[in-house]
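Support request, please re-run this one:
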Amino acid sequence: MTNPVLAETTRGNFVENCHRGAVAISDSGGVLRTEIGDIDRPVFPRSTIKAMQALPLIESGAADALALEDKHLALACASHSGEKAHVSAALEMLQRAGLDEAALDCGGHWPLAWPAVIELAATGGSPGPRHNNCSGKHAGFLCTCCHLGIRHLGYVNPEHEFQQTMREVLENLTGSPHAIDQCGRDGCSIPTYAIPLRSLARGFARMTDGQGISARRQKASARLLSACMAEPFFVAGTDRACSNLMRAAPGRIFVKIGADGVYCGAIPELGLGIALKIDDGTERAAIAVMAAVLARFFAEEAPLYSALKAFAQTGIKNRNGIVTGEVRPVGPLAV
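Re-run finished. Output below.
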């Protein structure tokens, strides 16, 4: 199946790029509210499932034992910008578990936020694992291992006890097998498993209403989604799409982007999960499509609909601040 064009970018009066993709919107029982394109082709969810991966942090009792706050829980679900508050919160999590930055196996890179890069470089600093956008997730993994008395060395390897637990969590939520032949390595070195968008959407719906999962997992899911919606800055950062979209509807929208054009989310009050993939991996197209998808569910609320529509159709500026074109959803998702 050839996926339809869901977004396009323009330059001047011409369409310069077309972005094909697929979208699944499901309830927790697997009943589809929306199906666009090939939602059964396995895709790597990448960072979209960090909230699912943070569930053992709650379920194990580690979060309570270490007195983790909403900001820490949100950071455990984050692809953060490496701003000061993000780095400090990640280090706090490690310190409460009796560890330091050296325990992180995510690798280091410069912060995603340009002002944070400038500040770090100006002070003669160099990037480390604490600046990695996944350091909060990894800190959560390490907190869980330490609380359970699991040897944390090698925690990123597929055969590690923690990763085996993680695989079981993901299978339970999505209803999709996470077999070794579906496994790859993510950018931060942990295993990532290719599954259909249909399954991803259902997994996020299950996090909203608990159908098909235990009462303990439902409670942990609600706590994590609530923490992310309460502290959207810690899920992404200054002027980042995930933070901005969740701020547009406080407590009503959860979203999490992943690399290579994958974007997932949930609308808790409707019990719906959302999963989409832009075939060519373009992030700005994925953001436009997610905003357009969300806008459809709030069409009767004019201020919110207008805010989401503004995220869906945005101008593209060059380095002199001149608008050169726009990115916009098209076809079945045009707003």
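Residues 215-230 form the longest helix (16 residues). The domain at 5-333 is CATH 3.40.710 (Beta-lactamase).
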